[in-house]
Each structure stands twice: as C-alpha cells, then as structure tokens.
Amino acid sequence: MLIFEQARPGRRNYSQAPTTTADADGIPEQFRRKKQPLLPEVSEMDTVRHYTRLSQKNFSIDTEFYPLGSCTMKYNPRACNALAMLPQFLGRHPLAPEDTGQGFLACMYDLQEILKDVTGMAGMSLAPMAGAQGELIGVMMIRAYHESRGDYERTEIIVPDAAHGTNPATAVMCGFKVVEIATDKEGNVDLNALKAAVGPQTAGLMLTNPSTLGVFEENVTEMSRVVHEAGGLLYYDGANLNAVLGKVKPGDMGFDVIHINLHKTFSTPHGGGGPGSAPVGVAKRLLPFLPVPFVVFENGAYRWVAEKEMPQSIGRLSAHMGNAGVLLRAYIYVRLLGRDGMHRVAEFATLNANYLMAELKKAGFEIAYPTRRASHEFIVTLKDAKEKTGLTAMNLAKRLLDKGFHAPTTYFPILVPECLLIEPAETESKQTLDAFVTAMKEILTEIQEQPDMVKNAPHTMPLRKLDDVKAARELDLCWRPDA
Amino acid sequence: MPFIPHTQEDIAEMLTSIGADSIETLFDEIPDNLKSGGLNNVPPGLSEMEITRLMMERANQDGFYQNFIGAGAYEHHIPAAVWQITTRGEFYSSYTPYQAEASQGTLQLLYEYQTMMASLTGMDVSNASLYDGATALAEAVLMAVRSHRSSRRILMPQTVHPVYKKVVRAIVGNQKIDIVELPFCTEAGRILPESLKKFDNEEFAALVIPQPNFFGVLEQVDELTDWAHSKKALAIGVVNPVSLALLTPPGEWGSDGADIAVGEGQPLGIPLSSGGPYFGFMACKNSLIRQLPGRVIGRTNDLDGKQGFVLTLQAREQHIRRSKATSNICTNQGLMVTAATIYMSLLGPDGLRRVAQHSHVNTVNLVQKLEKISGVKSVFSSPFFHEAALKLSKPVDDVLAEMKDKGILAGLNLQAFYPEMDNTLLVCATETKTAGDIQNYVTQFEQALQ
Fold first, then answer.
1. Is A463 on the interface with B (CB under 8 A)?
2. Are residues B327 and B398 in the same domain?
3. In A183-335, beta strands by DSSP E
4. Which residue of A has its CA nearest to B104?
5. Cβ-Cβ contacts under 8 Å, A75 against chain B
6. How many structural domains is chain B composed of?
7. Which helix (H) or strand (E) holds B179?
8. Cα of A109 to nearest chain B Cα, Å
9. Are A350 and A322 within one domain?
10. What residues in A contact B250, CB-CB < 8 Å?
11. Same-domain check for residues A162 and A304
12. Is residue A53 part of a domain?
C-alpha cells in the first residue's frame, strides 16, 4: 500500500511542525498557493512503520551477499556513518566562515593528501558528486588543457568498447566525438586498433584499468606511449581502483587525470543509488585546470581555494563543495584502513575473485577469459546454456535472489553475450563465497532438471517478475487520488 | 586487518583451489615496473576507538553557532525518525535498484517521492532526483535546448543563485549554448517584466525564473512565464521546495504554468553538513518526459498482476544509449531522497506549510527589529519569502566578525557575489529560531554596528 492510501484528511504530527498560526505577513495573495500539495496526512508512527517495512523489501550489503560487478559492494563500516553525523559536522553551513570549520577542513585536506599518495597524482579536487560527474570534470580538463595551448583540432575521445556507458556519454557532453575501439580475444584493448585510431585529432583516451572485463590491461604502458606521442591525454576511470589499491598507482601507469569512486573503493554507502562522490586527481600539467574549491593549508590554517586564484580552472560543478558528508565517511574509512590496510583491500578483493572464479569453473560454469587472472571481478558467460536451454543470464540472476543472494551485474559489458560480471569484494568470508558457489551449482542443475523453475524466478521475493514493458508503455510515474 | 574476515586457513585453502602459491602471484599479470613502491602520506591505521577520539576532537574544534545564513542552504528542524530510518542498512547499503524484485523498498519510496515532488511543484512528473540544485538547473537548460531545436540561447536573470549560474556555465559551456544574463531592478530586487521587451525580437530556448530569487524577493512569475511562452520559449522555475507549501507552484504560473521546475532539495530534511550531500529535484510537463534526465521509476504489475515498481524509460540513459544518452548521469541521490520522502511524510501538507510560514514570520520579525536600528535599512521594496537583504552603515565583514565572536553567524555578505552591492547583508531566520534567539541577534547586532 502506498503512503498516500493510508492518509486521512486532518491527521497531523503535532510535535513535528511549529505550533504557530501566525499568518505569512507581507506575502500578497497573488503569490500564494491555492490548493494544498498531495503530501500524505499520516501519523508519525504510520510513517515510521511504512518506511521501515519498505526497507525490509530491499536486498542490501547489510543483509545479503551483493556481488554486483563493477560496483564494489563492500561492507560500509558503521563508524564512518556515526562519526560523519556528529552534530557539529551536520550543523555547519556551507557558507560559514573557514575559521569556524577548521576541524572539518582538516579532514578534507588530509583526505586530499591521502588520495594523492594512493593514486600517484599531483593534485586532487574533492568537488565531483558522482562518478559520472568526475568523468565530466576530467574530460573538461582535457579539453581546457588542449585549448590553453591553442590546440583546437583535438575533437575526438577514444573509448574501448568494454567501457561504462558513462564514458561515451560524458565525452559527448564535453563536445567531443567518440571513437570506439575493440577488445582483443584476451580481453585487452586491441593495440593495433588504438594505434590506427590516434592522430592529431585525438584529445584523449578514457580507460578503466583493470578493465570492466575483470582483467588488467597488460599493455597499459605502451598504450600510454601511443596516446601521449599523438598528443592526447590519458583518462583513468577509477571504477575498478579497488582491485589495485596500494599495489599500482594510476599516476605510475601514465594517466594524466583520474576519478575515484569513493562509493566503491572507499566504502561510502551506495544509498540505493547515491549519493556518490568522485574526487578527481591530476598530473602536474593539469593542475591549473582543477575545479574549485579545494583545500590548502597555509600559515597554520586550512582554507578553500576559490576561482580568483585559479584563473584557468574549469570552474565550479556544485553549489557548494561536493558531497561533504560522503567525503567525511571516506576519510574515516581511510584512517581506519591506514597504510597497510590499503594494499590488503586489493589483495583480498583479488583473492576472493580468483577463488570464486576457480570454484565456479570447477562447478561447470564457462569463464569469459579463462586464461587470465581475475582482477577483483570476472565474467561468467551463459552463452552455451542459452543455446542449449533458452535460459538466460537474467533467469539465473532472478533465481539467485530466491537463494538469498543479490545477482551479479548482468548484460554488462555488452560485448560478452549472456554475461554475469561477478565482484565479491574483500569483506566477504570464504563461507559466504562457498555458499554462493553451492547456490550457483544448484541453479545449474535446475537449468537441466527444472528449467521452468528457473525461467519463472523469482519465487520467494515480495513480488514475482515485474513487467518492464508495461511500465515503459503505460507510463505511471505518479500516484493520483482519482486514478 | 580491518574488515577482512580471512583466517590463515581460509587463505591457504583458497590459494590451493586457485593453484597459486601466494596472494602476490595473483598480481603476476601486472608488469613489475608498475608496482607501487609504498605509501608515504598515509598514516598507520586507527582503531574505531582512536578514530572516534580524533573525529570528536575535530567536531569540537568546529563547535556550534547560531546560524542565520541561508543563500541556498536552509537550517530546518529534522525529525529524529528521518535519519534513523534512512540509515537503516537496507536503505543505506543497497545499490541502484537494478533487480527490481529485490529492491521494492527503494523503488516504491522513489515512486512516492516522485508523486510528492510532482504535486509540490504542480507539475505532471518528477524524476528520482539529480545531484543538487545547481546541477539540476544545468540539466534543465540542456533539456530546454534539446526540446527547442532551433535556439541554443537561455535567458538567465542575475537574481538566480550566483553559484548556480557558474555551475550552469561550467556544465553547458562545451555545448555551444549561449547564456544571456538578464539584469534586475536594483530598487525592486527582481526582474521587471517590462525589461524583457528589448528581447521581443530575439529567439530563446528558455527563460529561467527563480522563486524566491537569491535575495529572497518574489519574482513576477506569472508575467515572466507568459512572456516566455509568448516567445515559444520554455519557462524553467527554480524554486525552494519548502516555500512551495505556501507559494504558487511553478505548474500554476501564468496561463499555462512553467514547463520545468528544479531546485535544491536540501530544505526537506537534509542537514546543512558543509554543503552536501544534498539533492536536486526536477519535475516537468508530460510533453517533456522523453527529455527528462536521470532515473525515473514507474508503477507496473508482476506476473500475478500485483502492483510493483521498476526503473523505467531506461532507453534515455547512458548504459543503453551510450553516446546518444540524454545525460551522462547514472545515479540519483537515493539516500537523500529517502530522507526527504520520510520528512515530507512526517510533516504533511499542513506541517510543511507551518514550517514555511514560521520561517517567513521569523525573518519578517528579525528584519523589522533590525530596521529600527540606526544604520540598517531594507534594500528592496518587493515582497519576499524568509530571506532579506539589508543595507548597513558599516562594512558587512566587520559586523559578521563581531557577531561570530558572540556565537552568531549573522548572514552572508552579498558583495562576495555581487561586487556592486557593498555593505549589504543577506539574512534568514528559519523556524528553528526562537523569539529569544531573534532578540539576542538584534541586541548583538546593535552593538556590532556601533
């Protein structure tokens, strides 16, 4: 039942709103709302009960194994939330003077320095509010760099076909043409295709490494050379940084600009789809173009650097300074991990992925790139099962829900047919991985013996399979009392 | 090893299964020359007890102030239930609802949110949110240009939040969109509809209309909306959601209503927290649905005909359309919207109206008392909502510094954004301020001005 259907006219929460009945002085009638908005009239307990019950219809990291590839669904430590929500942090107005926020600014400054070290970059801005915005800012800086040199001929951004959809969408938002290049049989970017694609029109290459195919681009140094020699810059999509955290620095791989998804590698909550946060790091030559604001420490105090001091900055990308509360959570997380915790993240994420890949292979699943090491994720393809039984990756995904596991990412990357992109993350134990393998084996048997059971899954969720086609054809985006 | 559950025995068994002799072997495809030499600027790890001590010290260093700054971020009372429920693990640690059957909690909540926002703004539909108010305006500008086809020019009043204008310029700057600034009347503090006459022979994709505007002043939204429509341009309303419990919603401006409504969602249950995370909202007319960026939730049925909710209209989005998507955005501000939905449900239409009214009355009281002090007068003659500009006889920064020493953040120096507006203070008193707080402000202010 929707919250609106529980409402009754005149029901109110007396303790939650001011008791005043004073009229809004001085607001002329012409500006006033005539009809009250459709907000529910329910009691406080109705609200608490309704949304608590709704929460129970969600899978989450706190309740289930959630091996969603390319999303790094690791444990979100509770301390990060509790300490970011200290009342002094919550109550601080974004335009409050800097000397009333030295404690907060110290955290931001320390976070910038730690992220610079971990990524091997010369500068870091905490402003971007999501991975896609980090990408936008990164590509804007690439454009600003070329234009600052009077080089207006660089109109193309090269993107591998395995890349996240945000990469090409971002390049277009920055006014670039997208050139897609293919992946070779081993899952690496086709080096010859890259060589053929670069030229004086190349503004840059956007690369995820390890790639979304779950493998490390072995030729990254050569790729870097090819792009740089053509005068282009290298963009690092940090979606998979978790796989190499503390082991390899993007700066050492030759990248000029990067973004880091804090909601992946640095364990800030995914929150049902946001808020994210994606600091951007730059090599020395891109420092003048960093977005504002960022924090500096001078004469014993922390302060924001604003537009005036950064005449070549690409500007501001949020009303204030990005998702401060998310940044605090990431800061607390990096301090809990510390120096040695960083590389252990990569090591155990990689151990878990390779173990799961080995066990699933033994269980009879086809691995997309069987000769490669898994990074922190790997791909299973059900191409064969689809041909023989008609059952799809989506069918298996839905059946996994019945067995108490969130499904892996399905149908991405799109170049592997019937794929499941599986990323266990370092915080899962061997027992959990073993239980997942058992569930996957059971489904493999079911595909042979009870295909309808798999095809019609899920069976144990609050609802059965939902009709996406009806949703798109008969759009119903808002409840209406008269409908 | 924080948050890593592996025992030595686990590790040994796992490596045996893989056929590797050490964890390091698993990194053998990474060229040796790329392997990192170590981290110098990362301190050793802390225990939870130690980080708690550190964060408490830093929080205490910042302390508590009585806040009278608004300027786009407003301090309102947040019911305890809002964040207790929002931070339940099932909301906090879930992801984008790709598996609809295992995400009905988030999906139904977002559908309820869309319903509330569409009604609050008076529009047909709402998306599931964007990053913040500033980026929502940038997305509205892009949307207007996509739907208009022949014009890539946008009329942008100088009374729009100055940072929003900067963000719009940064985001749309590479797409050959021309932002034309529209000056305001310095006596009225708003756009004079008659000042638009000079643009009568020019073509625009949209006119942006802030309500209230950055100074708190109410714009002549009906006349502005009708003018935009007479030019076949879209009207984009930039609104404060709390104000909408009291003020005419964008969907009812002028004869036909604004076409797109956007704004900063923060006043709906989101703490100030140094500027984020907040959320941007965006609602529009039915005719613009296919141009709407961001996540959208639809109601549908399951195999048994039971009501359920899914992500819909995904054909607009980057993971399907890639370079042809309406936007590169792939998330909403899910957790913030969770809080806002619970907030709106707890307040209801009457509660939200009371919050708006009380905030406005507090600001009116404060302004009236301050105007009685010699050397203080209101800058603008027009009606306003819960925020006002005051001209002082002394530089604002001096007054603000003295007030700060008394524990009061007295407002914003408008000169930071409008260089020509010297000695001008922007002040806001929400429902969180008592009569005593306001009197204390006035007393301290009188001293600071001397």
1. yes
2. no
3. 202-208, 233-238, 257-260, 280-282, 294-298, 301-305
4. A57
5. 3
6. 2
7. strand B178-182
8. 12
9. no
10. none
11. yes
12. no
A407, A462, A477: residue with CB nearest B125: A477
Same domain for B305 and B387, yes or no, is no
Residue A94, domain CATH: 3.40.640.10
A196 near B CB under 8 A: no
Question: Contact B118/A478, CB-based, under 8 Å?
Answer: yes
Tens place of pLDDT per residue across chain B (450 aa) = 799 999 999 999 999 999 999 999 999 999 999 998 889 999 999 999 999 999 999 999 999 999 999 999 999 999 999 999 999 999 999 999 999 999 999 999 999 999 999 999 999 999 999 999 999 999 999 999 999 989 999 999 999 999 999 999 999 988 899 999 999 999 999 999 999 999 999 999 999 999 999 999 999 999 999 999 999 999 999 999 999 999 999 999 999 999 999 999 999 999 999 999 999 999 999 999 999 999 999 999 999 999 999 999 887 777 777 777 777 777 788 999 999 999 999 999 999 999 999 999 999 999 999 999 999 999 999 999 999 999 999 999 999 999 999 999 999 999 999 999 999 999 999 999 999 999 999 999 999 998
β-partners of residue B209 are B237
Q: What is the ipTM of this complex?
A: 0.96
Provide the residue type at B45 as one letter: G
Asked if the structure places residue A67 within a domain, the reply is no
Please tell me which of the candidates A22, A44, A66 has its beta carbon nearest to residue B95.
Answer: A66
The residue of chain B with its CA nearest to that of A60 is: B94
pTM for the model:
0.97
B263 shares a domain with B154: yes
B3 contacts in A (CB within 8 Å)? 74-75, 77, 336-337, 426-427
Residue ranges of A 224-253 with Cβ closer than 8 A to chain B: 244, 246-249, 252-253
Task: Among B134, B318, B361, select the one facing A319 at the smallest CB separation.
Answer: B134
Taking the C-alpha atoms of residue B105 and residue B121, their distance in angstroms, rounded to an integer, is: 24
Question: In the structure encoding, which two tokens stand for residue B270, read together?
Answer: 């989101």
Whether residues B87 and B232 share a domain: the answer is yes
Task: Judge if A261 and A151 occupy the same domain.
Answer: yes
CB-based burial label for A404 (10 Å; 0-12, 13-18, 19+): middle
Is residue A350 in a domain? yes
User: What torsion, rounded to 10 degrees, do the Cα atoms B135, B136, B137, B142 define?
Assistant: 90
Q: Which residue among B280, B307, B342 closes a domain?
A: B342
* Structural domain for B376, as ranges: 66-76+349-449
Phi-psi group of B274: left, alpha or beta (phi > 0 → left; psi -120 to 50 → alpha; rest → beta): left
Do A89 and A127 share a structural domain? Answer: yes
CA distance A378 to chain B (A): 13
**Same domain flag for B357 and B337:** no
> Across the interface, which of B5, B27, B176 has its CB nearest the CB of A247?
B27
Alpha carbon of A159: minimum distance to chain B alpha carbons (Å)? 11
Looking at beta carbons, which residues of chain A come within 8 Å of B358?
18, 20, 22
Containing B342, the helix (H) or strand (E) segment is: helix B334-371
Domain boundary among A281, A314, A337: A337
A1 and chain B in contact, CB less than 8 A: no
Residue range of the domain that includes A435: 341-469
* Structural domain ending residue among the three candidates B282, B308, B342: B342
Tokens, residue A55: 């929460």
Cα dist from A436 to A369, A391, A398, B344, B418, whole Å: 21, 20, 14, 40, 60
**CB nearest B170 (choices: A48, A315, A427):** A315
